[in-house]
Amino acid sequence: MIKKIFAKGYLWLLLALLYSPILIIMIFSFTEAKVLGNWTGFSFKLYSSLFAGGMHHSLIDAIINTFVIAFIAASVSTILGSIAAVGIYNLRSPMRGVMNFTNSIPIMNPDIITGVSLFLLFVSFGVSQGFTTVVLAHIAFCAPYVVLSVMPRLKKMNPNIYEAALDLGATPFQALRKVILPEILPGMISGFILAFTLSIDDFAVTIFTIGNEGLETLSTYIYADARKGGLTPELRPLSTIIFVTVLVLLIVINKRAEKQKKE
Amino acid sequence: MQQSSYIIEVHNVSKHFGDKTVLDNINLNVKKGEFVTILGPSGCGKTTLLRLIAGFQTTSEGEIRIAGKEITQTPPHLRPVNTVFQKYALFPHLNVYDNIAFGLKLKKVAAPVIEKKVKAALKMVGMTDYEYRDVDSLSGGQQQRVAIARAIVNEPEVLLLDEPLAALDLKMRKDMQMELKEMHQKLGITFIYVTHDQEEALTLSDTIVVMSEGKIQQIGTPMDIYNEPINSFVADFIGESNILNGIMIHDKKVSFAGHEFECVDKGFGENVEVDVVIRPEDVYIFDPSDVAQLTGVVTSCIFKGVHYEIVVQTSEGYEIMVQDYHCFEAGRNVGLLVKPFDIHVMKKERSCNTFEGKVIDDSHVEFLGCSFEAPAAAGFESGEKVVVEVDFKDIILQDNEEDGELSGDVNFILYKGDHYHLTVVSDWGVDIFVDTNDVWDNGDCVGISILPESIRLKKLQEDAE
Question: Which of A18, B15, B294, B448 lies in disulfide reach of B336, CB 3.0 to 4.6 Å?
Fold first, then answer.
């Protein structure tokens, strides 16, 4: 009995340590105080002023940039990643292992390394950094995750169904579109959501590829803002919204994964 | 251009995967409307042959024609054949109706025609009213019916079936066999059916093609294959059989199991070594009497449902399997009789192992990638190419691979009544044939050694160039 209480207590302590910073920000997003830590009564004022615009014009821009980049990067990496997954799946066994391993390197690689190396790549080719380079960089680190989420669908698929489609008169492209695509679509959607979340969330890669043309995403905006001296109070409601959004997306991904396992 | 009467012509087709030869110079002609079964153990290349005809793989050498047209390099979607796969391969995201309509929709057939044809196909396979069911909700047998309907709705010239019933339970399999046969008669199209189940092949086919190790062993009607197997592999693979070593004394007289028997075969020559096949149901068993050709003791008697399977040890030490409706308990003395007509004599494919070799010095010879001690090498010059002969019984198998001069895997086991005849594939891919009294299992890794005195050498007859 005591053992049980101890185990549970340990778990809750860990969870509290992990989540307390976020919780604190979430709680203090519902008050007006300029300084974090002062509670001056419950209020939605920070939320309303976040969306009121005007003085926070650059913040709204950063939010829009973040979502536009995330959408483009997630879409392109879903397409590229799915095609790559089909290609890897059809390789002969030694080569397939090599490609799977190659695909997992960018995932295990620390973001900072990915960021620096992409930065060096763009510089050495003389590409001027800005919106395009950020999108390219995000596609580069998101695509491997799409491969990872599409691959299990392909492995689960009856290997004969592609041949069955050809046998019934479908050209290879028709077979891909009418048979393979519907089979891997759930994996592609999960991959898209994952890529979208990763892109919104990214700081290390973005900061190295964003250039100095004045482009900001949320993460770089917050970083710059914090360095200027204290966080703008409106970042508290913003962090809360982003946290909740990401949480919802993650729950959706997990639920989908569970459902697929049951099938 | 000569018009051919065959719907499918497979001409000198070989298929290699890397160094491995999966199909070795296959020649096969199929008449229009025939039910042809390609039968063989797993790994014999039968599925590969079917896939070559379907177009999922391309031949390494040779040519395939369908309805007179050369299609060796044609992609599968342009071939007039349809396939039923072993694991059904239905499209899981489509319902029964859309699965069956898949091919017709691609051909841009008008919707009302599609509906009529799909309904007819469903009726043909006994699945009326299942149109809008999810394919995952169907049982294995039902899924296979849908798969068959999906193929036949396209009215192909040839229907290819790749072990379509292998995943079904016995009762369902029997029902489906009958239905397939009826379907074949109704549709009048050519069926090419791949299976490893010899009973299925005998039940269904007009023609059976027996394959082993990438080669066609025999082509014939089920009756031919069963009654007149061409070699010991076919005899052993199709049905139960007693296969014994024998000597053809002269026409219509053969000696085996220590006795001479009248038979009906002739044309083998005099005193020629042969294989003798006797089906267990062709052996008469009774209490010892004067008419008995062989006498012996029952060693086991197993009830098999319709009949008993009885193993008799003859006085000369041969084991003979007998099937009879009556029970003869173990330990009972019995007499056996075989009618001349039921003795089937086959030419032996070989009477000893022959390898190509090279003399190293006056006491060593190299073959199978190893050097062997051989006193017989004394009469040859070193470096000379020779033919090496070793009798089956002189090859010794060892439990430990390291104990032999070379190693190999047991690949095929044939019981010859008083000993086993094994085919061992050496690491160099050469078959070595071994007679032994020891029991080995298929797939065993063994060490192989050969006694120096038993190696015979012959001068290689160089072909005139």
Answer: B294
